[in-house]
């Protein structure tokens, strides 16, 4: 009798389940492009591709990488990519209102007990006394774009603390990193695999956690074109099936430690192909491990968080007042929570 370890069993079980769901419904090797950022938080897609879960679902997946959320939304709307995982932005909502895209599931989420996005202060600001978010009154907060998820989080922090900040759009995550390291901005929030190494270098300081202000925050969502969501159901279900198998492996290994340190090493090696690939494994591993956050099983979607985000964008006039949650989300694919 051949004994399988847990990961082998997951792979074989996942392959069988996914093939049963999707293979009869779509042509094998259906080519799709999936948008991603080079973040640990996008590991569901990386694992699904490398462990064959997308292939088992009948999909031939090409990953296409971006540097911010809004360009990814534009790429979905234009048909340049088919599916993506990223944060909700004003641009995404506006495209949804125009009938171009739909959110179909949830991905990264802030969960109590697991380090999530960190709030950072530049060294200059920290040395000047900014040691907590409450001390950011009058300070410059970095965002990629006006009406981005960073803007949402920063403004929610300001509202909670009763303070006022200016928001400086810098277009790309790399530019924001450069600005906070050089003191051109005073603060920012970012996922832990970026926040912790920056803080460890002494260039910035962690002064708070996003989950203290936004518990259960649906940090990223799974989305696609409206055509895929409404007219290509078999293909969309196949994508979600493969993606969800990748998420299960990731959570089991990195959050629940089901396969111990050996399992973590194997998973990190897989992720390292996409995240910090320019660094030696030994140097990349701590940063990748630091980026571990829960990704929703089965692409479950926190609708209360999505609704709150939508209302914030509307209140700030970053999107049209007439846009509705039905414009933004197709709830027919995954379980929702409120």
User: How would you sum up the global shape?
Assistant: globular
CATH homologous superfamily placement of the largest domain: Periplasmic binding protein-like II
Overall mean pLDDT stands at 90
Supply the number of helical segments.
15
CATH class of the largest domain: Alpha Beta
Sheet having the most strands = 5 strands, mixed
What percentage of amino acids are in beta strands?
15-25%
Low-pLDDT ranges: 1-24
In short:
The chain is 45% helix and 17% strand.
Explain the overall architecture:
The chain has 15 helices and 12 strands. Helices cover 45% and strands 17% of the residues. By secondary structure, it is α/β, with parallel strands linked by helices. Helix 9 (192-200) crosses helix 13. It folds into 2 domains: 6-109 and 218-337, Periplasmic binding protein-like II (D-Maltodextrin-Binding Protein, domain 2); 118-212, 3-Layer(aba) Sandwich (D-Maltodextrin-Binding Protein, domain 2), CATH 3.40.190. The chain has a 5-stranded mixed β-sheet with strand order 2-1-3-10-4, with helices on both faces. A 3-stranded antiparallel β-sheet has the order 8-5-9. It is globular, with a radius of gyration of 20 Å. The model is unreliable at 1-24 (pLDDT under 50).
């Amino acid at each position: 009798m051949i004994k399988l370890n847990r990961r082998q069993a997951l792979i074989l079980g996942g392959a069988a389940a996914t093939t049963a769901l999707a293979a009869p419904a779509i042509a094998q090797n259906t080519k799709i492009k999936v948008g991603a950022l080079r973040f640990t938080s996008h590991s569901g897609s990386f694992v699904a591709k490398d462990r064959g879960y997308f292939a088992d679902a009948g999909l031939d997946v090409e990953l296409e990488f971006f540097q911010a959320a809004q360009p990814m939304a534009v790429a979905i709307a234009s048909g340049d990519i088919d599916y993506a995982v990223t944060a909700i932005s004003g641009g995404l909502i506006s495209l949804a209102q125009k009938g171009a895209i739909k959110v179909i599931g949830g991905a990264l989420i802030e969960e109590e007990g697991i380090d999530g996005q960190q709030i950072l202060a530049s060294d200059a600001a920290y040395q000047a006394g900014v040691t907590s978010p409450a001390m950011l009154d009058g300070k410059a907060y970095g965002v990629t774009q006006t009406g981005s998820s960073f803007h949402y989080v920063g403004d929610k922090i300001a509202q909670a603390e009763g303070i006022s900040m200016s928001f400086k759009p810098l277009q790309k995550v790399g530019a924001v990193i450069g600005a906070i390291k050089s003191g051109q901005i005073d603060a920012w929030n970012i996922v832990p695999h970026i926040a912790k190494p920056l803080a460890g270098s002494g260039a910035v300081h962690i002064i708070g956690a996003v989950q203290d202000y936004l518990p259960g925050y649906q940090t990223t969502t799974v989305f696609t074109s409206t055509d895929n969501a409404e007219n290509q159901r078999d293909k969309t279900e196949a994508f979600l099936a493969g993606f969800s198998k990748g998420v299960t492996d990731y959570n089991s290994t990195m959050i629940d430690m089901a396969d111990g340190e050996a399992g973590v090493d194997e998973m990190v090696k897989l992720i390292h192909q996409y995240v910090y690939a320019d660094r030696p494994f030994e140097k990349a591993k701590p940063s990748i491990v630091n980026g571990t956050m829960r990704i929703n099983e089965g692409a479950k979607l926190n609708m209360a968080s999505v609704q709150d985000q939508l209302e914030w964008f509307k209140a700030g006039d970053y999107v049209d007042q007439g846009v509705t949650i039905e414009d933004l989300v197709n709830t027919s694919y995954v379980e929702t929570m409120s």
